[in-house]
Amino acid sequence: MNFERIKRVKSSKAFTVPDAIVSVIMVIAVIACALFVYRLPSADVIISVRGEKDIRLSLDSETDIELKHLTVHIHGGQVWVTDADCADKTCENIGKISGTWQRIVCLPNGVVISVTGDDDSLQWEIGR
Amino acid sequence: MLCVCVCGCAAAGYTVFEPIAVFSDDILFSAKISGGRADYVYKRMKDAISEIDNEISLSKADSALSRFNNAAQNERIEVGEHAFNLFKLSCEYYELTDGAFNCAALPLSRLWRVDSASLACLNGESDAADLPSPERVNETTAYCDPNTVTAECVDGRYYLTKTNGNTELDFGGIAKGYAVDECVDILNEYDVSSALIDISGNAYFYGSYIDSGVSSDWGVGVLSPRPRNGPSLSRGYVVALSLGGDVSAVTSGDYMRYRTVETSDGKIYVPHIMRANGVPLGVEYDGNNWKNSDDWVISATVIGNSSALSDALSTAMCALGIDKGGELLKKVGYKGLIFTEKKYTIIGEVSLYRPDIYDGYRRYDYYEL
After folding, report:
1. To which H or E segment does residue B320 belong?
2. Are A49 and A112 contained in the same domain?
3. Where are the alpha helices (DSSP H) in chain A?
4. Which tens digit of pLDDT belongs to each residue from B80-124?
5. CB < 8 Å to A56, chain B
6. Integer Cα distance of B333 and B241 in angstroms
7. A77/B contact by beta carbon, under 8 A
8. What is the chain B residue with the closest CA to A42?
């Protein structure tokens, strides 16, 4: 048996710099896996025009939708309206929304913009 | 949404049946069944609903209920077992809800033009027709009472007789729930492990939800009551429920069937839900004109074993208001949620599904009962 080697190992530091690097990498990997598996369901933006047509887009879509009477902006997980041609501009004044209970309504132009959760994870809906 | 749900459920091992119109063009029957003889069970359920419809439809002139409504005072009308059962149940619920659920309110609905036929004619447009006078409402309310009808079962045959010639019945308030309960009885006869039955929002969750062989609770979204006239997709969910098996969930609200009326003081909303005083939910008389109240129940969800009772209670919750409605639900032992324009309350131990996402309820103030 190599007693010298055993002695050297016993006298070395228990937690070295390479050990720390490997540990940090492992922690990051575990967090990344957890986020992937348990990521929050994405939300969607529903744009309804005069109750007839529903446009559905991801809240992460980073886009601008030019409708006939107003423009809808979806950026940074928020939705807002500009360029409304109505007189009261209520829809513009509501500002930015992001919660699933929030909505922007432009009554003169019949536009309703709302944010929904990941509806597909539900098995059914009631209250129709 | 429905397509996605249908695809998702097919993958989960359910036989999914496309929605079909029952009772009327706008009432849809949906079903998905796992285990047992799904096709045969579905056919039995469809036949049962059709049988009920034939007895109680008001759009069919030869239905037992149409014949009863057109009958003269003291004329005995033979009806089927379903119509008889529905009348007996309705009377029971009338007493239970102190008149808030009333199967004899059809003349009042017609007076306010919120019955099915009047609403179909209006097709969502504002109505300039005059609202009834308070005197006319009181006169009509006097005979809108199911106690003016006697029910008899003689030698296995069923009869209804009205003691006031003006009385008319409409079982639309519990017919969907009653039909769902009949469907559940059929599911019980066969080796069905899990199923979902829905007749336009009267849902029953039979057994646990099964996905890839794993059982779990059902995640059920309750559509937001606002905005009133928005398509369901843009309304989003006010809350989502996590429901264990063998339970029914029913929602009623002021946004489902209503008309708008232009008055000299502006536009008012007249929902189809009638209160015991003969005035629709959310409407009041200020001495000169009818107007909308400051606050009223806009959505009531009831969770319980019987879909018929849940159906009646959800209507009664709206008519009674958040305090009396909530107390009644507690008394019956069912669970539920009541929303007004400003506040909400939860009755019993209601388990919410992902309240972090389905958080529409947060815009209402919590109200402790």
Report:
1. helix B307-320
2. yes
3. 3-11, 17-37, 90-93
4. 999 999 999 999 999 999 999 999 999 999 999 999 888 888 766
5. 233
6. 18
7. no
8. B357
From the list B294, B309, B303, B292, the residue with the least C-alpha distance to B241 is B303
Cβ of residue A38 closer than 8 Å to a chain B Cβ: no
Instruction: Tell me: do A28 and A73 sit in the same domain.
Output: no
Q: A122 vs B219: CB contact, 8 Å cut-off?
A: yes
Same domain, A82 and A19: no
**Domains detected in chain B:** 2-105+144-254+296-366 (3.10.520.10), 106-143+255-295 (no CATH)
Which candidate from A99, A114, A128 shows the least CB-CB separation from B201?
Answer: A128
Contact between A124 and B218 using a beta-carbon 8 Å cutoff: yes
Domain check: are A29 and A81 in the same one? no
Q: If 0-12 CB within 10 Å is exposed, 13-18 middle and 19+ buried, where does residue B81 land? A: middle
- The verdict on A81 and A109 lying in the same domain is yes
ipTM of model = 0.86
Pair A75, A97 in one domain? yes
- Whether residue A127 is contained in a domain is answered as no
pLDDT in 10s for each residue of chain A, 128 residues:
577 777 776 777 767 788 888 888 888 877 765 654 444 446 788 887 776 667 888 888 899 999 888 999 999 888 999 999 988 787 888 788 876 556 787 877 878 887 765 545 788 889 87
Nearest to B358 among A56, A100, A102 (CB): A100
Q: Is A126 part of a structural domain of the chain?
A: no
Could you give the CA distance from residue B65 to residue B87 in angstroms, rounded to a whole number? 10
Give the pLDDT confidence of B34-88 residue by residue, as tens digits.
Answer: 987 999 999 999 999 999 999 999 999 999 999 999 999 999 999 999 999 999 9
Nearest to B234 among A40, A99, A112 (CB): A112
What residues contact B119, with CB distance under 8 A and at least 6 apart? B113, B257, B258, B259, B272
For an interface test with A, the pick among B220, B234, B364 (most A C-beta atoms closer than 10 Å) comes out as B234
The total domain count for chain A is: 2
How far apart CA A70 and CA A79 sit, in angstroms, is: 13
Is the CB of A9 inside 8 Å of chain B's CB atoms? Answer: no
Which domain does A81 fall in, by range? Answer: 44-121
Q: Which residue of A has its CA nearest to B364?
A: A101
Residues A11 and A53 in one domain: no
CATH of the domain at A116: 2.60.320.10
Contact B196 A124 (CB under 8 A): yes
Lowest mean pLDDT among A26-35, B184-193, B197-206, B228-237: B228-237
